[in-house]
């Protein structure tokens, strides 16, 4: 699927930052219309799995329509619930991604407790956000470092770009320290 809209260009960039590999298990929080789901499902291939959690039944339905073949094949599973209430069972994920989901940097952010439980050893979390003003990038990183740090996560890499429209997009990767 080509990236013809600004949102698709932004989400294609986010998918590149996540860099999901064949066979990986990926959790996307806040799927919107399912554009990023499509890109992640293609990246993980037949041996991987993408689980989507969104509190909006309308967005989950849109994502399901867009990704029906992957849902039918069992490579994509959609859950309608806030992340803190989602039934994820014993699943563990190699990567978790959230794009423009403010809950991750707004205390108390119980979402980080869920990520602590479902992230596989060595796994990564990528939180991306549109930057509505030039100083937003450093504030995003500082806010994530503070909230996620209180749950044992640390910023491992920061990437930003000015090529997305209408606003630049930043993505921050976080991981647990190797001894945690």
TrEMBL record:
Keywords: Methyltransferase, S-adenosyl-L-methionine, Transferase. Its EC number is 2.1.1.-. One of its GO terms (biological process) is methylation. InterPro entries: Methyltransf_25 (IPR041698), SAM-dependent_MTases_sf (IPR029063). GO terms for molecular function: methyltransferase activity. The keyword Zinc does not apply. SUPFAM superfamilies: S-adenosyl-L-methionine-dependent methyltransferases. Residues 26-123 form the Methyltransferase domain. This is Class I SAM-dependent methyltransferase. It comes from Geodermatophilus maliterrae.
């Amino acid at each position: 699927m080509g990236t013809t809209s600004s949102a698709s260009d932004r989400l294609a960039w986010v998918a590149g930052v996540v860099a999901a590999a064949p066979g990986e298990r990926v959790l996307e929080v806040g799927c919107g219309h399912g554009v990023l789901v499509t890109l992640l499902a293609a990246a993980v291939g037949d041996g991987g799995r993408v689980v989507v959690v969104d509190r909006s039944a309308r967005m989950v339905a849109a994502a399901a329509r867009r990704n029906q073949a992957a849902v039918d094949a069992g490579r994509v599973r959609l859950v309608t619930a806030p992340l803190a209430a989602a039934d994820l069972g014993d699943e563990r994920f190699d990567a978790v991604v959230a794009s423009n989901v403010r809950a991750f940097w707004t205390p108390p952010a119980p979402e980080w407790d869920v990520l602590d439980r479902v992230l596989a050893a060595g796994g990564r979390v990528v939180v991306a956000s549109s930057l509505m003003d030039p100083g937003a990038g450093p504030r995003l990183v500082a806010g994530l470092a503070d909230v996620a740090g209180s749950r044992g996560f640390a910023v491992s890499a920061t990437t930003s770009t000015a090529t997305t429209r209408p606003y630049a997009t930043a993505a921050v990767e976080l991981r647990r320290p190797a001894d945690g």
